[in-house]
């Protein structure tokens, strides 16, 4: 079959195969297939971290080792997701200016 249809259109099947739905996406960190790997210093701290993991419906492999520094970075990244900042809408041209001068925005600060 030709790659081009009438008037030079690209074959739709070939285009779909190249840019189709991605079924090979990565598994999310903290799920059952990809649990978090956390390292804590004591058994008391392990219990605290296990409660935190259970509250957020995550899965984690927690190891206790008192000779190494605590490493719960993966958990803190998931719990402290960045939020999008939203700004106030700028006034349109004919709205009164926000500086309080009483003029239109287009004549004052715009």
Give a quick rundown of the structure.
The chain has helices at 12-19, 43-55, 73-79, and strands at 36-40, 60-64. With 110 residues, the protein is of the alpha+beta class.
DSSP, total strands: 2
**Proportion of strand residues:** 5-15%
| Major β-sheet strand ordering | 1-2
- What would you call the quaternary organization? single chain
Which structural class fits the helix and strand makeup?
Answer: alpha+beta
Give the low-pLDDT segments: none
Nearest-integer average pLDDT: 81
**Roughly how many Å is the radius of gyration?**
28 Å
Q: Number of helical runs?
A: 3
SSE order: HEHEH
Shape: elongated
Give the end-to-end Cα distance, rounded to a whole number of Å.
59 Å
- Which percent bin holds the helix content? 25-40%
The major beta sheet can be summarized as: 2 strands, parallel
Describe it for me?
By secondary structure, the protein is α+β, with helices and mostly antiparallel strands. The chain has a domain at 27-79. Helices cover 25% and strands 9% of the residues. The chain is built from three helices and two strands, in the order αβαβα. It has helices at residues 12-19, 43-55, 73-79, and strands at residues 36-40, 60-64. A two-stranded parallel ribbon has the order 1-2. Helix 2 links the parallel strand 1 and strand 2 (60-64). The mean pLDDT is 81.
Draw up the topology in text.
Elements: H1 12-19, E1 36-40, H2 43-55, E2 60-64, H3 73-79
Parallel strand pairs: 1-2
